């Protein structure tokens, strides 16, 4: 019989890429969602006040869209935040409502 040859697996291009830290848009989106949920507001209500579609706001919250500074200002304003406050919250690590925090000793 023949020899068994182990084939090296090639990475699946459709597989998610593992990152050690989140992207800025993911941190900002998480902060926006956390703030909205803290206030007990619906996506459609915040989107209407911000002048964006609920679908777009949902994608921003999930970190799928990279909004312009004007869009961030509109959404942050609809949540009674300034862009500076939103950026500060995101820069602290994005540990808002719904985020997991793991500590190692």
Automatic annotation (TrEMBL):
GO MF annotation: an example: DNA binding
Gene3D superfamilies hit by this protein: lambda repressor-like DNA-binding domains
Matches recorded under InterPro entries: Cro/C1-type_HTH, Lambda_DNA-bd_dom_sf
Entry-linked SMART domains: HTH_XRE
Domain annotation HTH cro/C1-type: ranges: 32-86
Transmembrane segments: none
SUPFAM superfamilies from the UniProt entry: lambda repressor-like DNA-binding domains
Domain of life, source organism: Bacteria
Coiled coil (residue ranges): none
Protein name: XRE family transcriptional regulator
Species whose genome carries this gene: Nocardioides pocheonensis
Lineage, uppermost ranks: Bacteria, Bacillati, Actinomycetota, Actinomycetes, Propionibacteriales
């Amino acid at each position: 019989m023949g020899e068994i040859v182990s084939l090296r697996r090639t990475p699946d291009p459709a597989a998610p890429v593992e990152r050690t830290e989140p992207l800025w848009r993911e941190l900002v989106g998480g902060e926006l969602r956390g703030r909205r949920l803290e206030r007990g507001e619906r996506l459609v209500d915040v989107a209407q006040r911000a002048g964006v579609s609920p679908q777009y706001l949902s994608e921003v919250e999930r970190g799928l869209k990279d909004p312009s500074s004007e869009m961030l200002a509109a959404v942050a304003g609809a949540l009674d935040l300034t862009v500076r406050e939103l950026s500060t919250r995101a820069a602290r690590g994005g540990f808002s409502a719904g985020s997991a925090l793991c500590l190692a000793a």
